[in-house]
From TrEMBL:
Residues 3-227 form the AB hydrolase-1 domain. Keywords: Hydrolase. InterPro entries: AB_hydrolase_1, AB_hydrolase_fold, AB_hydrolase_sf. Gene3D superfamilies: alpha/beta hydrolase (3.40.50.1820). One of its GO terms (molecular function) is hydrolase activity. The keyword Hydrolase applies. This is Pimeloyl-ACP methyl ester carboxylesterase. The keyword Translocase does not apply. GO terms for cellular component: membrane.
């Protein structure tokens, strides 16, 4: 089995290193750095969800299970929609779609803040995701701080505010209505999962909630997440 691991906003492929080791006995994994992130920090734009999905499509030679965290959840959903022949199933972890009206109302100000303060504003997002400082927090924050501000701002706009974006719930509902592959969705909060449960999914899809975990739940509990992948995919 081939698994493509797609990191989130302001992260890089290194975020998957523990997962890669844990599933290596039964899968082949690829965890690339997305355009504008990690080793691809100098890659030219555009920095959009569609462009990131196009980049991934070019590197896939045989169909994969596409796994995405946060922004990566949008990327793999877009990849599966536009390149269905390259994907066999989708796994999303706290995907960056399904934002409610309240969150979308805040999006223009958040985008303006990203345009003004760049990665500093992005780092504050990481701080809010961790109730206390630990090694994972420090590592995640450092990756965000290394990501250029224009990359973070452009991708945030692409997720929630740009024409054709599907981060807002009405657009999410329309976009996912055409899904052709099983989706296995993992959430840290019941509120987000409740919206997912209101949607119609292809046969074989699953939705699971891990209460009491943070946004980076797959990194907080790598063994548990690797087990989930094994249970769902094998």
């Amino acid at each position: 089995m081939r698994i493509l691991l797609v990191h989130g906003w302001g992260a890089n492929g290194n975020a998957w290193r523990q997962i890669t080791d844990l599933v290596s006995e039964w899968s082949e994994t690829t965890a690339p750095d997305l355009r504008g992130h990690g080793t691809q920090i100098d890659a030219d734009g555009p920095y959009t969800i569609g462009a990131l999905a196009d980049d991934l499509a070019k590197m896939i030679h045989d169909p994969v299970v596409a796994v995405g965290h946060s922004m990566g959840g949008q990327v793999v959903a877009d990849l599966a929609a536009r390149y269905p022949e390259l994907v066999t199933a989708v796994v999303v972890i706290d995907p960056a779609y399904g934002a409610d009206d309240e969150e979308i109302a805040l999006a223009p100000d958040r985008l303006a803040d990203l345009r003004e303060r760049g990665s500093e504003a992005g780092a504050e997002f990481v701080d809010r995701a961790f109730p206390q400082t630990n090694e994972l927090h420090r590592e995640t924050r450092a990756a965000m701080e290394r990501t250029p501000g224009d990359v973070l701002a452009d991708l945030y706009e692409s997720m929630y505010l740009a024409p054709g974006s599907f981060g807002h719930r009405p657009a999410t509902r329309d976009f996912l209505a055409t899904a052709q592959h099983p989706f296995h969705s993992l959430y840290s909060t019941g509120r987000a999962a409740d919206f997912a449960m209101s949607l119609t999914w292809p046969a074989g899809s699953t939705i699971e909630v891990w209460p009491g975990t943070g946004h980076y739940l797959h990194q907080e509990h790598p063994d548990r997440f690797a087990q989930l992948l094994g249970d769902r995919l094998t």
